Amino acid sequence: MPRRTNLLLALLLIPPITIPFLIIAVLVRITSSGSVIYWSTRMGRNNKTFKMPKFRTMRLNTPDIATHLIENADQFVTPIGRILRKTSLDELPQLWSILKGDMAFVGPRPALYNQDDLIVLRTQKGVHQLTPGVTGWAQIHGRDDLPIPEKVEMDYYYIRNRSTALDLNIIWHTFFTVFKSKGISH
CA 102, CA 95: separation in Å to the nearest integer? Predict the structure, then answer.
């Protein structure tokens, strides 16, 4: 979708998510110490880093690496964090990144700044040229369950077949993927 469509959609979503956003913020605050929003350093378009906001779902002493690499990651998840991750509601603050232009609704999920294996493979396939998304082709086909090379192949499929119709299809399927909590490991 073009940037102006992402911007318009983000602006339209602000009023209906305001109340859920505030409720979640209060729940995060009263169930764990630390800030409500966690600013994660991510790789954006052309491998430039940016700060991506999420509702904080992990305790303050959690290592700053991909969750699947943390031994016994469940010990770091906050009480409300489990629910937020399972429902993907922790992603709501990323509307800010869409408004800023760091992200789009659809594109490859932004890698953590230290996920070198994912960054290298994406760069080799030209995926790094895309604006990262809140959801994407890989998210509706496995999310956390996909090994990195397979995830990159999904991203590569997206870059070769990118269209508004595909983006709308991905958004549509995202709702079902989230509803079923498919592919979420923590």
Answer: 10
Beta carbons within 8 Å of 98's beta carbon, 6+ residues apart? 6, 7, 9, 10, 104, 105, 134
Dist. CA 158–CA 142, nearest whole Å: 14
The structure tokens listed for 129 are 């040229």
Q: Is the pLDDT of residue 84 over 50?
A: yes
- Residue ranges with strand state E in the chain: 37-43, 49-55, 104-106, 133-135
Flag whether pLDDT at 182 surpasses 80.
Answer: no
Rounded to an integer, the average pLDDT of 155-161 is 97
Separation CA 178–CA 88 (nearest Å): 7
Rg (CA), the chain: 16
186: confidence class by pLDDT, cuts 50, 70, 90: very low
